[in-house]
Design brief:
CATH architecture of the largest domain: Beta Barrel
Order of helices and strands: HEEEEEEEEEEEEEEEEEEEEEEEE
Distance between the termini: 25 Å
Strand content: over 45%
Oligomer: single chain
CATH superfamily of the largest domain: monomeric porin ompg
Largest sheet: 13 strands, antiparallel
Shape: elongated
Helix content: under 10%
CATH class of the largest domain: Mainly Beta
Length: about 350
């Protein structure tokens, strides 16, 4: 709970009266907060208090709440209802008016706050776009541009994820004046997860890569397998995956390298505070045909919130290909800084 914002919002409520805002939250310690209940997810309630901004509180600290407009409630035991709520008669409960999700003309029902899995769960597509650039003139002549994006949709049953990125760089030799390309690569991924239960899911994935400097014409890596979602909250996200994949590489000189591989992966996101978050992803493709042939794709970085929609990002990307094109390095390390917009 953000103590400063919550205290400011509570003080404003006492001064202006509880009728100013639509919804009201009563806490176990007797405090009241008025504003707009935005959502409940991962044990956290998000409230727009207007004067105090967006505040996240633990659901365990909420005694009851009321709303003056319908909200969608999904309980842990599978119930769904959309209706207004009023304060419950016992601590830790609310009364949900007939609304939708119950028998026609049904009376108000009592629902435990602790039993609420989601409130106003969004199944809309969300994503972000990150752009970075560096242009140097004078003793150093260099151009660097990078762009990347993410798009995804999460429902209770499945999850779609798409990512893409492009890096380009060139520099001029101060002695000869000749310009040369120092980076020219791009990738795209698509992934579908189908949840077999709350934690376990089956997935299908596909990745395409091209890197002109590494003499990689293309690399295709389709894969299938099972994943386990250890935690998925606004503050924590962590899953692990295991399965099979097929790696198909074609180099600029026409040579190819194809093999069946395993696929081991994990994805981690962790909110550090209300302004910063850390992320780390790793995919490992060990050949099932040759012990010395494998591929590693990983990145790690930090994202800093600038405004409600804007953020700054630093990340390091690392690729290791045990069998690269002739004359190419096995490893590639990139440091990328950019500014992003989320939608």
């Amino acid at each position: 709970m953000r103590v400063g914002k919550l205290a400011l919002a509570l003080a404003f409520t006492l001064i202006t009266g509880s009728s100013v805002w639509a919804d009201e939250v009563l806490f176990n310690n007797g405090d009241r907060l008025t504003g707009k209940i935005v959502s409940v997810e991962g044990g956290k309630m998000t409230i727009d208090s207007k004067i105090g901004g967006t505040i996240k509180v633990d659901v365990a600290d909420v005694k009851t709440f009321t709303t003056d407009a319908p909200i969608e409630i999904r309980t842990k035991d599978g119930q769904r209802m959309t209706a207004k709520t009023t304060a419950g008669e016992t601590a830790g409960t609310v009364k949900v008016e007939g609304g939708t999700g119950g028998p026609a003309g049904s009376a108000a029902r009592t629902v435990s706050v602790e039993n609420m899995k989601y409130v106003n769960f969004s199944e809309a597509w969300t994503g972000n776009l990150v752009v970075g650039a560096l242009f140097a003139r004078g003793n150093t002549f260099a151009d660097q541009v990078n762009i990347s994006g993410e798009l995804g949709r999460r429902t209770e049953q499945d999850r779609w994820s798409f990512t893409a990125g492009y890096n380009f760089g060139r520099q001029r030799d101060p002695g000869t004046g000749n310009k040369s390309t120092s980076a020219d690569n791009w990738y795209g991924t698509a992934k579908y997860d189908y949840f077999l239960n709350e934690k376990l899911y089956a997935f299908g994935s596909f990745r395409y890569e091209h890197d002109r400097i590494a003499d990689l014409d293309y690399r295709l890596t389709p894969g299938v397998g099972l994943g386990y979602q250890w935690v998925e909250t606004p503050a924590w996200f962590f899953n692990t995956e295991a399965g099979l994949a097929y790696v198909a590489e074609k180099y600029a000189d026409g040579d190819t390298n194809d093999f069946i591989s395993g696929r081991l992966a994990y994805h981690l996101k962790r909110t550090i505070n209300d302004k910063a978050a850390f992320f780390h992803n790793m995919e490992y493709y060990p050949s099932l045909e040759r012990f010395d042939d494998y591929l590693i794709i990983t990145d790690a970085g930090v994202r800093f919130t600038l405004t409600t929609k804007m953020f700054a990002e630093y990340k390091a990307e690392f690729r290791y290909d045990a069998t690269p094109a002739v004359g190419a390095s096995r490893s590639d390390l990139r440091h990328i800084v950019g500014v992003g917009w989320q939608f």
